[in-house]
Automatic annotation (TrEMBL), chain A:
GO terms for cellular component: mitochondrial small ribosomal subunit. It comes from the Eukaryota. One of its GO terms (biological process) is translation. The lineage of its organism: Eukaryota, Metazoa, Spiralia, Gnathifera, Rotifera. Keywords: Ribonucleoprotein, Ribosomal protein. Belongs to the universal ribosomal protein uS9 family. Gene3D superfamilies: 3.30.230.10. InterPro entries: Ribosomal_Su5_D2-typ_SF, Ribosomal_uS9, Ribsml_uS5_D2-typ_fold_subgr. The keyword Acyltransferase does not apply. One of its GO terms (molecular function) is RNA binding. This is Mitochondrial ribosomal protein S9.
Automatic annotation (TrEMBL), chain B:
Pfam families: DAP3. PANTHER family: MITOCHONDRIAL 28S RIBOSOMAL PROTEIN S29, SMALL RIBOSOMAL SUBUNIT PROTEIN MS29. The keyword Ligase does not apply. GO terms for cellular component: mitochondrial small ribosomal subunit. GO terms for biological process: apoptotic process. InterPro entries: Ribosomal_mS29 (IPR019368), Ribosomal_mS29_met (IPR008092). Keywords: Mitochondrion, Ribonucleoprotein, Ribosomal protein, Transit peptide. This is Small ribosomal subunit protein mS29.
Automatic annotation (TrEMBL), chain C:
Belongs to the universal ribosomal protein uS2 family. The lineage of its organism: Eukaryota, Metazoa, Spiralia, Gnathifera, Rotifera. One of its GO terms (cellular component) is mitochondrial small ribosomal subunit. HAMAP family: Ribosomal_uS2_B (MF_00291_B). Gene3D superfamilies: Glucose-6-phosphate isomerase like protein, domain 1. This is Mitochondrial ribosomal protein S2. It holds the Pfam family Ribosomal_S2. GO terms for molecular function: structural constituent of ribosome. One of its GO terms (biological process) is translation. PANTHER family: 30S RIBOSOMAL PROTEIN S2 PROKARYOTIC AND ORGANELLAR (PTHR12534), SMALL RIBOSOMAL SUBUNIT PROTEIN US2M (PTHR12534:SF0).
Length: 424, 445, 268
């Protein structure tokens, strides 16, 4: 026993001696440091016991039980440190490999290995091993291991194994910490409001206060709540859809509080300025006819239907060029299909102010009419103001229907239609 | 739902008819408020309110869509795009069996309690021509056609019939002719010549219509046969029999109706040289004379148009070997007789995959181009040549506006949204300026 | 887990009153064995302070003076005696119920007090030995209070939806070996309506001792230190959190003071 204890005592001394013997410029590698830390921890636990033993004689059995407890407590930390040490050794090995590889590559390219940078490596690898693989991640590369090995996490607990965060056991402490702060802030505001009301009630008897001056609620116009993905990136955590929705509801509740301006900085973290999804810069400019008449050209495909549209300013003439012949709006038999064409014009309030020239091909009637609707509303964007474009977007006219054609099933005439049933 | 709406329309019209005083009650808001005030005054106060004021307001606003001249003889280009009223007595003479227009039209006439036709450019054009014609020359042929269906060929024809009836013309009217060739009501082999087909009921119907349309004129002229006709071994009519008697004879002996029909046509055609009368022939769907038929003999051999007795006789009217006559005919897709759809016929093109299938053109209706060359084909074109083609276009903006205002005046548009300018533009967009589509869109509102 | 609580009152009923009182006092310190039971005065005399400052907290009957903390009046004022509708009663709770008034169960506070003292004592001992204490509840109204009080005393809380395997499969859940809590305190034993909290069975599996406030509708059979009392009203929850906070702080302070004074804490 004594020998063991002595050896343990000596261990850190040795390391210290080593470190002192080394020149000051060279750092001790992190592996050594972590090993040192690990050992010193164990030793510290035992040193205290040693101190006690020096003063009082203790039975061996008692010593053992105490030792076990001490070890149990720091097991989490020791495991973590072991893992760290493993990783460090691996990284050391890999860096050495990288250095050698770099030197070889420089030699192959006939350049100086000392001044060989990462850009040079990339260039030379692209030259030596040209790859046409579509995914860039699958192409050959040579990089420092720190760049592509997953980074080690910081320990979430101290040396005695006690977690550092009070919500550690929930599994997502960062996110729940925000929620915790949010609730506490809301409750504080409630308390404050109660107190203020109480004071106000007493003040009113003396003189009236102007309530218009008290602009205490936060103004959220022109902004939206942060996106889930952005939130994940910003706070470096993982949130599922359900808890995100709950979180937004809670934020909304805080923002609607009558004193929410006091928590402006907190709420400000979760606000992003509203960006219109359709940018005016993306809309193409108007084309011009030989006669100088402005028009817009488009081709829209939906399922099998193809619609080629030309939209002119005019007075409501419609020409539909189908394989069967030339038609006006009566090409569409039913009123519902004609209303599809009408709808975008109605939204922007410009019925019979545009001429339509359409070339239709393939597709069924309802599909064609929907494709025409999408084409018209897209082309209309070039003619109308930004407000009207927003109206079109809100009406859902600027989203294309991306559903593909449903496949034909065996044993059936089409996707859904069955063969006519005959009684033998 | 639609029934309820229609009932509402009819009821409102009834109340309209009953209370002429409150003519404008539902029409526009300003008058409404005025009227309500007057009504309130009338019922609430003891003083009696003079009713003259309302009458003045009714007369003071003449409707711009109505033509003050209801006599078609006086119609000219000044009265274009306006509605004129047809007397019920006249209509009963011109169109006794309500065959000239579609069923929808007659339903509207019934609901509106009046028959109003729009004076349109093609009708005025033909009337102008007729006024200026030299009738001593061989028969003039007009062909009305449109680029779409439902542009108003038959209502133009009705307008022309009305004009000629007022101008004391002898009318020979063949409405809905293609129906006979599709499926005659009764058919029997001819006794006159073998291989021909008699359609006695259709012939009798024609004779009845003919007698009603020209009863007054025939009595005045007192036309008589110039030849002895043998209907069978026993029955015959001697020379000098009045035509009206012949028609009555046909009513009693329907068996001989188609032969009598031929005789009458022959007599009329022969006696035009006397310059006593003028003949106006109106044929609907004339292109059916130059195509196949759906009728079949007992041995399932096909029957051509020339094999049907009355068709053969009517076809003679279209020739230009007689004078003092005008032939106005329409051509349309209804006249194109396609082979009867079999029970196994699929109405979609099976060669296209099912997702892309549209209704096959020509399976039920003719859907090709509607020009005279396409519809009459070579045979008909040469048969009618020389003829004057007259296009009946779809509505212009002003025509559509007058029609809209007319409907509005008749309280036919019940929805409040339809009464706004935007609503009118929407209806215009959805109908594509086509009169028939316009009518149908307005029915649902 | 042994169901100590279930058998305890029966024994008391059978014994005579002075004996039962004596037993109750000793039960407040269950870590002490029957042989080592000694009075407070005797213990002090046996230890020789001059020679060495050795303390075995388990040998004291009331090391943290908890008897003074818990009062019947406080419990009564905080409405701790209200139970649920008698139809909701869990049969294991029959012993702790005083009676039923207007279809509502009334909890016998005379039984609550010794059990509560015992539980608080246990909490204090764990806190004294620097154990990890986890506060658990799923009652939405109390969550901010309980999270806040856990933070104040430097302990941990879990008031979020329970994911199965948090204790039993902790290595995979947290990505590394972690130290599990040494004590779980349940302020409310239901997760959803009438459904036991998922942590209850997991603590039992992982041999983690539990303290829980058991209302008349909750099942105390899997709990080491049940406290029969009302768990729904905020006022009573405030009382419990106040007591527990006080006890934990007291224990931690005591530890610090003793270490500063150079005492050696020794168990057995």
């Amino acid at each position: 026993m004594n020998f063991l204890k002595l050896s343990h005592l000596l261990n850190p001394l040795k390391i210290n001696a080593l470190s002192s013997s080394l020149p000051a410029t060279k750092k001790i590698s992190t592996t050594v440091m972590s090993n040192f830390y690990l050992n010193s921890l164990k030793l510290n636990a035992k040193a205290s016991q040693l101190a006690s033993t020096t003063k009082l004689p203790f039975s061996d059995a008692d010593d053992k039980s105490n030792n076990e407890r001490a070890e149990n407590i720091s097991r989490a930390m020791s495991y973590y440190l072991e893992k760290m040490a493993e990783r460090e050794s691996l990284m050391k090995f890999k860096t050495e490999e990288f250095e050698i590889g770099k030197r070889h590559l420089a030699k192959m390219m006939g350049e100086n290995a000392e001044t060989f940078t990462q850009d040079d490596i990339n260039r030379s690898i692209e030259y030596l091993l040209p790859s046409g693989l579509f995914n860039k991640k699958a192409r050959p590369f040579l990089k420092h291991p720190e760049d592509y090995y997953p980074k080690s996490k910081l320990a979430a607990f101290g040396s005695d194994g006690r977690p550092l965060h009070h919500l550690f056991y929930t599994g997502n402490p960062d996110f729940y910490q925000i929620i915790y702060e949010l609730t506490q802030k809301y409750l504080n505001l409630n308390r404050l409001e109660d107190a203020m009301n109480l004071i106000k009630g007493r003040m009113k008897t003396i003189h009236k206060t102007d309530e218009a001056d008290l602009n205490t609620r936060i103004n959220l116009t022109g902004s939206v709540w942060i996106d889930r993905n952005k939130l994940n990136v910003k706070f470096n955590m993982k949130i599922d859809e359900l808890s995100y929705n709950k979180f937004i509801i809670m934020l909304q509740k805080l923002a609607e509080h009558s004193l929410s301006k006091r928590e402006e900085t907190f709420i400000g973290q979760f606000i992003v300025p509203f960006e219109p999804p359709i940018k005016l810069s993306d809309i193409p400019a108007l084309l011009k006819d030989e006669t100088g008449r402005p028009y817009q050209e488009l081709e829209v495909r939906q399922r099998t239907a193809i619609v080629k549209l030309k939209l002119y300013e005019g007075n409501g003439k419609i020409k539909i060029k189908a394989p069967e012949g030339n038609f006006n709006i009566n090409f569409f038999d039913s009123l519902t299909q004609r209303e599809q064409l009408l709808f975008p014009f109605k939204v922007v309030d410009k019925i019979n102010k545009f001429d339509i020239e359409m070339e239709v091909n393939n597709g069924g009637m309802s599909c064609l009419s929907k494709a025409a609707r999408y084409a018209i509303s897209k082309a209309l964007c070039c003619f109308v103001s930004a407000d009207s474009i927003e109206k079109l977007r809100l009406a859902g006219l600027l989203t294309s229907d991306s559903r593909p054609k449903e496949r034909k099933k065996p044993g059936q005439e089409g996707a859904r239609r069955r063969y006519t049933w005959k009684k033998r | 739902m639609s029934l309820a709406r229609n009932l509402n329309k009819i009821l409102s019209l009834r109340s309209l008819a009953a209370q002429n005083r409150l003519f404008n009650l539902n029409n526009n808001l300003i008058n409404k408020s005025l009227l309500i005030n007057s009504v309130q005054k009338r019922y609430l106060s003891n003083e009696q309110e003079p009713k003259i004021e309302i009458k003045i307001s009714q007369k003071a606003v003449p409707h711009f869509f109505r033509c003050s001249v209801n006599d078609p003889l006086k119609h000219n280009s000044v009265h274009l795009n306006k509605f004129y009223k047809v007397d019920e007595k006249d209509l009963k003479v011109i169109d006794p069996f309500q065959e000239c227009l579609t069923r929808e039209h007659y339903a509207e006439f019934k609901a509106f309690n009046e028959t109003a036709l729009m004076i349109r450019q093609p009708a005025i054009e033909v009337i102008d021509y007729i006024k200026k014609l030299d009738l001593s020359l061989p028969a003039y042929r007009f062909v009305l056609y449109g680029n779409e269906n439902g542009t108003g060929k038959r209502s133009t024809l009705l307008h022309l019939l009305h004009y000629c009836q007022k101008d004391n013309w002898l009318l020979i009217h063949l409405p809905n002719w293609s129906a006979v060739l599709r499926r005659s009501k009764e058919s029997q082999p001819s006794t006159y010549k073998e291989g021909r087909l008699d359609t006695p009921i259709d012939a009798a119907l024609f004779l009845k219509r003919f007698s009603v349309q020209n009863n007054k004129l025939l009595k005045e002229l007192n036309l008589k046969t110039t030849k002895k006709y043998n209907w069978s071994n026993r029955d015959s009519s001697p020379e000098g029999t009045p035509l009206l008697d012949l028609i009555e004879y046909a009513n009693t002996r329907i068996k001989y109706a188609s032969d009598i029909c031929g005789a009458i046509i022959r007599e009329i055609k022969f006696q035009t040289n006397s310059n006593k009368y003028k003949v106006f022939v109106a044929v609907d769907q004339v292109n059916s004379f130059f195509g196949p038929t759906r009728l079949k003999r007992a041995d399932k051999s096909e029957i051509k148009v020339d094999d049907i007795t009355i068709a053969r006789n009517f076809k003679k009217l279209l020739k230009n070997d007689w004078c003092n006559s005008v032939v106005v005919s329409t051509i349309g897709s209804v006249g194109v007789i396609l082979p009867a759809p079999d029970r196994r016929t699929k109405f979609y093109d099976t060669s296209i995959s099912i997702q892309n299938r549209r209704r096959v053109p020509c399976s039920l209706h003719y859907e090709g181009p509607l020009t005279p060359a396409h519809l009459l084909k070579k045979e008909g074109f040469y048969y009618l040549e020389p003829f004057i083609p007259i296009e009946v276009p779809s509505y212009s903006d002003s025509e559509l506006l007058t029609h809209y205002e007319y409907y509005r005046d008749r309280n036919w548009l019940q929805s409040e949204d339809a009464l706004t300018d935007d609503g009118r533009e929407e209806i215009k967009f959805l109908s594509g300026n086509n009169p028939r589509e316009f009518m149908r869109v307005c029915q649902t509102i | 887990m042994l169901n100590l609580t279930k058998n305890l009152p029966i024994i008391i009923n059978k014994l005579t009153t002075p004996q039962s009182q004596k037993l109750l006092k000793f039960t407040s310190n269950i870590h002490s064995t029957a042989g080592n039971r000694q009075n407070d005065q005797n213990l002090k005399t046996s230890v020789v302070p001059q020679k060495s400052k050795i303390i075995n907290p388990l040998k004291h009957e009331d090391f943290f003076q908890i008897n003074e903390l818990v009062k019947l009046e406080d419990l009564f004022k905080a409405r701790c005696h209200y139970g649920h509708h008698h139809g909701l009663r869990c049969p294991w709770m029959n012993e702790f119920i005083f009676g039923t008034r207007i279809t509502t169960d009334i909890i016998d506070l005379d039984q609550t007090i010794p059990l509560m003292k015992r539980a608080l004592n246990f909490i204090a001992h764990i806190a004294f030995r620097k154990g990890v204490i986890l506060f658990i509840t799923r009652y939405a109204q109390h969550i901010p209070l309980i999270e806040q009080s856990a933070l104040e005393v430097g302990e941990y809380s879990h008031c979020k939806p329970w994911r199965n395997g948090t204790f039993t499969d902790s290595t995979r859940r947290f990505g590394s070996v972690i130290r599990l809590p040494d004590l779980c305190i349940f302020f409310h034993t239901h997760e959803k309506l009438n459904e036991a909290h998922g942590a209850l069975s997991e603590t039992a599996k992982m041999l983690i001792p539990t303290v829980a406030i058991c209302d008349s509708d909750s099942d105390p059979s899997q709990i080491t230190y049940p406290i029969p009392a009302n768990d729904d009203s905020l006022v009573s929850q405030q009382l419990y959190t106040r007591l527990i906070k006080e006890v934990i702080i007291k224990a931690k302070k005591k530890r610090q003071e003793l270490e500063e004074q150079g005492y050696v804490i020794q168990y057995e």
